[in-house]
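Title: Prediction job returns without error message
Component: structure pipeline
Severity: low
Priority: P3
Assignee: unassigned

Description:
Job completed but the reporter wants confirmation the result is attached to the right record. Sequence as submitted:
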Amino acid sequence: MNKTINQLLAPSLREIVREYCVLMSRKELSELEEERLAEILELANCDSQLNFWMDESNHFLGHELNLLEENDRNFYKDQQAKMREYLGVTCLPVKTEPNPCTSNVHEPIC
């Protein structure tokens, strides 16, 4: 199952993740950008799907910006392989009930 990011994420969630990546890749943030980043982090505390994609974004940015050492990369690859083997699934179920912490209702990953 090869799905694109557009197929995996609801548009509202995709936009938040994109904005997070832009903010996290900047060397310095304005006060307004710092406030927005804090808002996004607060949303992620209440939204497990957003939290997951932000973690994935951090991992991706770590590779792209050469912030991860080779041992870290190997550790992540090992963890991913263990997770795939343990789950034995290609699609993770996602709780689709409205989340009281955010007004966004996200589509399931499948």
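Comment from assignee: result matches the submitted record. Confidence is low (pLDDT under 50) at residues 90-110.
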